[in-house]
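quick q for whoever's on today - can somebody do inverse folding on this one?? i tried earlier but teh output was garbage lol. tokens:
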């Protein structure tokens, strides 16, 4: 079958399935729309001004709390299905002109079993294992976007953006707020104050109603999650089930101005000649900068930065890059880009801000006016990061050239929970190099019923590379264009999940501001899962069994990837999760077709406070991309995390990969990472990270010359004092070592690092 014929049939099939399913949803839903809306609504409450001052010490004893709104948390939504909560919890809400105040009384029949540890802010992998509370507010009450705040019994904070349409929960977003916690003989209590200048809400003097959810996590043999409202499994939206709190009025944001000066200094010493050279001291590089955040209105935010602080104190999680085809993605961690990041989300990752490497300055504007959300940011960069995708592989490079780049985003709310949007991204060289990349298109998210959604996006790109770049990386030497289309239909209910999707990326499509590592594809995919739910105290909490299938063709009609997978999931006591996947597939690479069968096993357990471990295993056929032949793969990834008392956290991860040909080893690689953290308090910690890679190759099985042995070693040490996300002191040291056949592991460089930052708010 020709590629275009396949694509047409897939599109027709998707449209027919969507029409049939949507027709069923309309028939079932429209007749009782008013009744359905009433069922979805959480309970309504009224809040009033605080009647006294509040001291955030974790002791809920002020008069303001006696007069505050009290919201109970009577429902367990996981693992139970809106059954009575196993413990009692009160959430108290009040406010004054400057702050939203929330308190919790978390009663516990066995306070000695409360799980609580000191940790860094936003250390969510550890925090979610602790007892903790969570609130989410939807200030626009439009059921599209929420602000989430979590606190454990010691007052450790985590915060996140949540976008309903994309299912996007981003804990890299930071606000400046205050909290306190205290463990008592009856449980624990929490106090929270969130300044209104850290939130976005409608402009005006009228009384406002906000969406609101209070949740408590109670981890024991299983992790009980309790809420202030029912959270139904047959409804595929979260914000639409929230409580509503009316009475917010007279909130002040002051100037709504935040100024964050920073000073970053570092010195990198390098070996002048590897491996026998001397370590030469580098120059001390001081980089002062300043960022400004101004709330033009409570719902419109302007960010600007000159010589912005884009330093990164967290080492990227080590990933194996042996025998890979496509560029590896590392997450964004830099504060300037994280503000309002959800405004730029689309079905395709057409905006990936880590492509901006070393900007001299930047500006960003995000906000919402009525039903319209807008976002813009621009930067002037001294490095041009480029990704060259294709059907078979992707390559990347970094050019030292000045480029100006920008993104514009517009989204319009449609109906109750749908939206239509427009996106533009552009990048162009400032000098003599004739380079540009422009991408433009539209997208949408449609909620067809309470369980069914449809998302889509179309983009067109125009690109022109410099002649030397195009020649070096096999790209067109003349200007060229391309198109991209993505459509996804999803159904999520209590007992069934099914979805179908289609993607089409033409060979000439480029999104240099995004992360699109593969083009020249026409792909269809689908899944169906049946869910089974256990009862309280049973041997399982949830079991699912399902199938997944996909077929990917290039634009000449060649099937390049096809898979069919059986997927099973088990969740049960001791917070156990187990996944088994068995796949049968076909892959085309470098002119050859390969039939590949494989299996995946994943098991994770959290059997007691402060202990988490997991193992991932993959075994089966794969492609040896470097030598262009079929091979067998064994991949193991054991992981363990232990909290020793309240202060010490040890995190150990190992990756093992072995590739073999008819029983003979092609290569074996081991990658180990150890993180050791001592937390003095909620503000201060010291951390050590050690990463070690050992790669051993069988040179007789390579079709080209390779080294039999390669080793790398990386260490990083950090002292951190953090009052809030922007008022910080960091002192750090890191170094790299390299070894290979005939050369011992030798230090190649070392870096000393310091950063001071301060947040001035008004």
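ok took a stab at it. sequence:
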């Amino acid at each position: 079958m020709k590629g275009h014929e396949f694509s047409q049939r897939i599109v027709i099939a998707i449209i027919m399935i969507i029409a049939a399913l949507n027709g069923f949803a309309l028939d079932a839903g429209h007749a009782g729309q008013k009744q359905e809306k009433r069922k979805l609504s959480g309970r309504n409450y009224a809040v009033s001004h605080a009647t006294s001052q509040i001291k955030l010490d974790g002791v809920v004893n002020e008069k303001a709390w006696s007069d505050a709104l009290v919201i109970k948390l009577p429902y367990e939504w996981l693992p139970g299905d809106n059954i009575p909560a196993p413990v009692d919890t009160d959430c108290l809400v009040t406010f004054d002109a400057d702050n939203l105040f929330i308190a919790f009384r978390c009663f516990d029949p066995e306070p000695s079993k409360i799980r609580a540890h000191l940790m860094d802010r936003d250390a969510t992998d550890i925090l979610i294992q602790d007892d903790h509370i969570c609130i989410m507010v939807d200030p626009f009450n439009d059921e599209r976007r929420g602000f989430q705040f979590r606190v454990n019994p010691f007052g450790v904070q985590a915060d996140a953006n949540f976008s309903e349409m994309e299912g996007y929960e981003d804990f890299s977003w930071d606000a400046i707020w205050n909290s306190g916690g205290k463990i008592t003989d009856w449980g624990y209590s929490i106090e929270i104050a969130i300044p209104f200048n850290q939130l976005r809400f409608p402009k005006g003097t009228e009384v406002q109603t906000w969406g609101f959810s209070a949740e408590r996590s109670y981890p024991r043999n299983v992790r009980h999650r309790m809420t202030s409202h029912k959270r139904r499994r047959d409804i595929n939206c979260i914000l639409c089930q929230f409580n509503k709190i009316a009475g917010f009025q007279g909130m002040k944001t002051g100037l709504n101005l935040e100024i964050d000066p920073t000073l970053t200094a570092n010195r990198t010493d390098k070996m002048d000649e590897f491996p026998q050279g001397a370590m030469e001291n580098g120059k001390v590089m001081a980089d002062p900068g300043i960022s400004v955040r101004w709330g033009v209105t409570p719902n419109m935010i302007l960010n600007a930065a000159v010589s912005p602080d884009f330093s990164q104190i967290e080492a990227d999680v080590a990933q194996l890059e042996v025998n890979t085809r496509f560029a590896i993605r590392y997450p964004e961690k830099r504060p300037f880009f994280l503000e309002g990041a959800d405004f730029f989300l689309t079905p395709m990752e057409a905006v990936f801000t880590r492509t901006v490497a070393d900007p001299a300055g930047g500006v960003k504007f995000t906000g919402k006016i009525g039903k319209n959300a807008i976002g813009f940011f621009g930067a002037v960069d001294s490095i041009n990061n480029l990704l060259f995708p294709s059907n078979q592989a992707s390559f990347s490079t970094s050019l030292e050239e000045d480029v100006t780049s920008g993104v514009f985003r517009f989204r319009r709310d449609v109906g109750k929970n749908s939206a239509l949007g427009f996106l533009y991204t552009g990048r162009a060289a400032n000098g003599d190099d004739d380079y540009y990349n422009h991408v433009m298109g539209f997208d949408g998210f449609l909620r067809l019923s309470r369980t069914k959604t449809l998302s889509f996006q179309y983009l067109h790109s125009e690109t022109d590379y410099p002649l030397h770049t195009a020649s070096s990386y096999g790209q067109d030497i003349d200007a060229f264009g391309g198109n991209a289309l993505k459509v996804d239909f999803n159904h999520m209910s209590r007992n069934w999940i099914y979805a179908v999707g289609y993607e089409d990326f033409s060979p000439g499509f480029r999104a240099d501001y995004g992360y699109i590592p593969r083009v020249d594809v026409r792909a269809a995919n689908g899944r169906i899962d049946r869910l089974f739910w256990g009862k309280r105290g049973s041997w399982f909490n949830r079991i699912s069994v399902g199938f997944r299938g996909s077929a990917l063709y290039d634009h000449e009609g060649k099937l390049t990837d096809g898979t069919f997978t059986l997927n099973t999931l088990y969740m049960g006591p001791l917070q156990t999760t187990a996944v088994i996947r068995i796949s049968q597939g076909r892959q085309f690479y470098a002119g050859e077709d390969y039939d590949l069968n494989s299996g995946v096993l994943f098991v994770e357990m959290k059997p007691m406070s402060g202990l988490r471990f997991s193992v991932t295993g993959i075994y089966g056929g794969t492609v040896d991309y470097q030598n262009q032949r079929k091979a067998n793969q064994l991949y193991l990834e054991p992981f363990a995390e232990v909290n020793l008392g309240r202060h010490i956290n040890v995190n150990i991860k190992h990756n093992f990969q072995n590739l073999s040909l008819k029983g003979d080893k092609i290569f074996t690689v081991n990658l180990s990472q150890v993180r050791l953290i001592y937390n003095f308090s909620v503000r201060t910690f010291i951390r050590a990270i050690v990463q070690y890679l050992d790669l051993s190759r069988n040179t007789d099985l390579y079709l080209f010359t390779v080294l039999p042995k390669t080793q790398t070693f990386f260490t990083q040490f950090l002292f951190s004092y953090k009052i809030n996300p922007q008022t910080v002191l960091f002192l750090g040291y890191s170094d790299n070592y390299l070894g290979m056949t005939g050369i011992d592991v030798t230090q190649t460089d070392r870096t000393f690092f310091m950063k001071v930052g301060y947040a001035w708010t008004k």
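fwiw The first helix runs from residue 3 to 29. also Residues 1-38 have pLDDT under 50 and may be disordered. so keep that in mind when u check it
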